[in-house]
Amino acid sequence: MLSLYRNAFGGLSRQVWLLALVMLINRSGGMVVAFLTLYLTQKLGFSITDAGFVMVIFGVGSICGTFLGGKLTDLIGYFPVQLFSLMLGGIMFLLLSQTQNYYVICTLVFFLSAFGEAYRPANTASIADFSTPETFTRSVSLIRLAINIGWSIGPAVGGFLASRDYTLLFWADGLTNIGAATLVFFFLRSSRQKRADIKANKVEIDPKDSAYRDRKYWIFLLLTTIYAVAFFQLFTIGPVFYKQVCALTEIQIGYILGLNGLIVALVEMILIYKIEGKFEKLNLISFGASLVVVNYIIFLFSHNYAWLIIGILFATFSEIFAMPFMNAFSIERSKPHNRGQYSALHSMTWSIAQVSAPLVGTQTIAHFGFDALWYILGSFGIVSAVGFIWLKRL
Predict the structure, then answer these.
(1) Is the pTM of the predicted complex or chain greater than 0.90?
(2) Measuring CA to CA, how many Å separate 262 from each of 2, 44, 145, 164, 201?
């Protein structure tokens, strides 16, 4: 078993491990977003409507930041984009802790989200540069592992800090961003220079080759968005369903959601190591998309705690099979000169899904109830699964 883990994590470059460390530090500080609504309503006294509008602005900022990050990555390279994204994001957190004016908060939240999300396409482009085609998917999985561990640490520490003083959340988030930027500056700067020298000797690729003209890629993005909307409901509307309909306690809900991160951390790298290169990527993505449907079928027919755990297991393996290979498919269709463009469009699909998923879920529940939502989301899963198989035939 130890040998299997060693092989699964072996062969990855030092730079990829450094990127994973940067992501771990960055996501471990991901506390403010989890508690932002509570901070605005409980600490500053804003209404739920006002707090909801701030979260919408956060989503819009993430979409704009992802798009801009991809453009800048292709123009000036991934190193400065990652560096300034982390540094400016850290400064935004510190500034946000010092204001109570609603309009200033809205402005700072927009720029905070934009700077933060600009990091994602630059990070994906750098992973591709620091890995081989054979190790890229495992490199992505390593970064995802760092994100999952970081998201597990962040909210737990954030709850402890928020119970004492909400301002501490902003300082923790800001300082971890600045710390991650410092790592990028000192440890990835030399790697970037070496890679630049290598790229200078390559044959120039036609600059007209644009992701915006890749029709099959746009189909892929549409299917990815449909899947992402279905998947994100597990973590936005799912806890409400567990509490109101299934009558679970907060501890039980925490166990179910925590199981997702635990399984991803323990299984994903090994599974990717064993199956990568043996199956078509779109087949694996389609299989992963189909697994999320099982969770919504369980929601329709059982509220038993044991069955709900089985449901989250299917959803977790849906994530494991689909998401790493979605990243790999995106990068494979790109070239070095437009990699940021492809990465940005792919990242934007997830930002759009994060914004639209709660809206779709809450409005459907308000007018038609939970069961109608599960039918819709199950249909989304089926459409995306069939769509990826159809895309493969194209």
Answers:
(1) no
(2) 18, 35, 10, 28, 44
Instruction: Report how far apart, in Å, the C-alpha atoms of 288 and of each of 213, 293, 318, 326 are.
Output: 27, 10, 4, 10
User: Tens of pLDDT along the chain (394 residues)?
Assistant: 777 777 777 788 888 888 888 888 777 766 677 677 667 877 888 886 787 778 778 888 888 888 888 888 888 888 888 899 899 988 998 998 888 898 999 999 899 888 888 888 888 788 878 888 778 888 888 887 887 777 767 666 776 777 778 788 888 888 888 988 888 888 777 655 444 544 544 444 455 667 788 889 999 999 999 999 999 888 777 887 888 889 888 778 878 877 887 888 788 888 888 887 788 999 999 999 999 999 999 999 989 999 999 999 999 999 999 998 998 888 888 877 777 788 888 888 888 887 777 778 878 888 898 899 999 999 999 999 999 999 998 8
Sign of dihedral through CA atoms 6, 8, 10, 12?
A: negative
The one-letter amino acid code at 358 reads P
Overall size of the chain counted in residues = 394
* CA distance readout (Å), 184 to 169, 232, 299: 23, 30, 43
Residue 212, number of CB atoms within 10 A of its CB: 10
Q: CA–CA separation, 109 vs 170, rounded Å?
A: 12
